[in-house]
């Protein structure tokens, strides 16, 4: 097992305030594309700048795009979000298609959540005074002393029939009554015809 998680930032799972309550607000605010004009590892990002950058800027008018050429350095995408988080990504030797996919991912995600070590899988601002719920919270304490396997506890729980089952039973009863009425009519007509 890797000890990589020891060096990650830790925090609680959270969503940006108000996201999805009224209207969608893009969390990505600023993207900086750093590249070298002559280095071969920057070819994919240069192709992205030549072919796709103008369309990306038109489609995402709320995102500010900075282009920063640097000599003899590997290409980097730096994304800044509304909550102040920054995501830095080395895109050395990436193709243009890969850059397009990564730019779309950076635009649609809230921040770099994969780089956050979760302290707990749940978090609340108002913790319960009763403690957390478990499947054994409201169980009978006598079950703690029961020897298993137990036929009584292992038996299937008999639940009341569902609404669908009740409707099926009513339909079958209606069909049976209609069939019995038809049978009586046939018997009467046969009895009248024989007389």
Automatic annotation (TrEMBL):
Subcellular location: Mitochondrion
Gene Ontology BP, a term: mitochondrial translation
Superkingdom of the organism of origin: Eukaryota
Ranges of residues in domain Ribosomal protein/NADH dehydrogenase: 37-110
InterPro entries: Ribosomal_mL43, Ribosomal_mL43/mS25/NADH_DH, Thioredoxin-like_sf
SMART domains: L51_S25_CI-B8
Region (Disordered): 174-195
Protein keywords: Mitochondrion, Ribonucleoprotein, Ribosomal protein
GO MF term (any one): structural constituent of ribosome
Protein family (similarity comment): Belongs to the mitochondrion-specific ribosomal protein mL43 family.
Name this protein carries in UniProt: Large ribosomal subunit protein mL43
Species of the source: Odynerus spinipes
